[in-house]
Design goal:
alpha+beta
């Protein structure tokens, strides 16, 4: 009986090991595809959903690898998408409120919002805001168009996506094999008579159930992230990007020209000092030593001799 239980435990563990593999955290690889159900293209950002831990110390099933690839190609693609938008608006606070209502009306929600104060080039304080929302993936393009309706200017718009279909199919295969192993271990534990056998089976069963929960969490994360697209919107006040203009006069242009001329002056002046110190100054010193110094010495000697003659000719009293 003990040998039979041992063989059955080994078989269940091997089945579980063949049904799992180690999944390293996937690097974000962004691709595009039509939305599920034939709708508009959609995008979701993985970073805004909590990531469920992946099972560790597991292996890829060799028997289901080909079948998993076929399933991944045949089934509808599962893509996590996101969109980033930066727009200029007249009132950032009012626009942020409008975007929040839009998310709720479309069946989504607000992830985060932030209203803060910034300053223009002239030092005037102006409001600025940022907001992150989630909307149903099939309504992403519609949401972006509605957000841009009140925009004075669209500074930037980016959309990206990550295809996780293969990862999801792998997780399904692992889950199927782990659940089969769990069923076998449960039957083994019900037939075990010795306490030692029961504990051994229980430990194996606990480990497999932990892996099952991890895989289910990861699959749920993929499903929810693909179903709801994340949209990050930066709201810039119109005063921030508008130039100062008074009756057709733009002082920033005059100021720019004045500063530019000042910079040119100092550049020319520094260039002159460098040329003078390196090129002309050594030449002047050479001319002084060769020509000026001898003349100065001769003049000085003549003056000294003249003073001595005058002193000798002066009658002594």
């Amino acid at each position: 009986m003990k040998r039979t239980l041992f063989v059955m435990m080994i078989a269940a563990v091997l089945l579980a090991a063949c049904g799992t593999r180690a999944l390293a955290p996937a690097e974000p690889s962004y691709v595009e595809r039509p939305a599920m159900g034939g709708g508009d293209s959609v995008y979701v950002e993985e970073a805004y959903a909590p990531e469920a831990p992946l099972p560790q110390g597991t292996m890829m099933p060799s028997t289901d690898k080909a079948g998993g690839n076929v399933d991944a190609a045949a089934r509808e693609r599962l893509v996590i998408r996101n969109a980033d938008l930066s727009i200029v608006v007249k009132d950032p606070e009012a626009s942020m409120t409008s975007i929040s209502k839009l998310a709720e009306e479309m069946g989504g929600f607000v992830v985060s919002s932030n209203l803060y104060q910034t300053y223009t080039n002239s030092g005037l304080p102006v409001p600025e805001a940022s907001i992150v929302i989630r909307v149903p993936a099939e309504k992403l393009n519609d949401a972006l168009e509605k957000i841009k309706v009140d925009a004075v200017e669209v500074q930037s718009e980016n959309q990206s996506g990550q295809d996780v279909t293969s990862e999801y199919v792998d997780l399904e295969s692992q889950l199927k094999n782990l659940e089969a192993a769990e069923k076998q271990l449960t039957e083994i534990m019900s037939k075990a008579e010795k306490t030692e056998d029961v504990l051994n089976v229980f430990n194996q069963l606990t480990s497999i159930r932990g892996q099952i929960e991890s895989i289910k969490g990861q699959m749920k994360y993929f499903e929810e992230s693909a179903a709801l697209s994340a949209v990050t919107v930066r709201l810039v006040a119109e005063e921030t990007v508008q130039p100062i203009e008074v009756l057709g006069w733009k002082p920033q242009g005059t100021l720019r020209d004045a500063v530019q001329n000042l910079i040119y002056f100092w550049q020319d002046f520094v260039d002159f000092l460098i040329w003078f110190a390196i090129n002309f100054l050594p030449k002047l010193l050479t001319i002084g030593v060769v020509f000026v110094l001898p003349i100065w010495l001769i003049v000085r000697a003549i003056r000294n001799a003249s003073r001595k003659r005058k002193a000798a000719q002066t009658p002594k009293e």
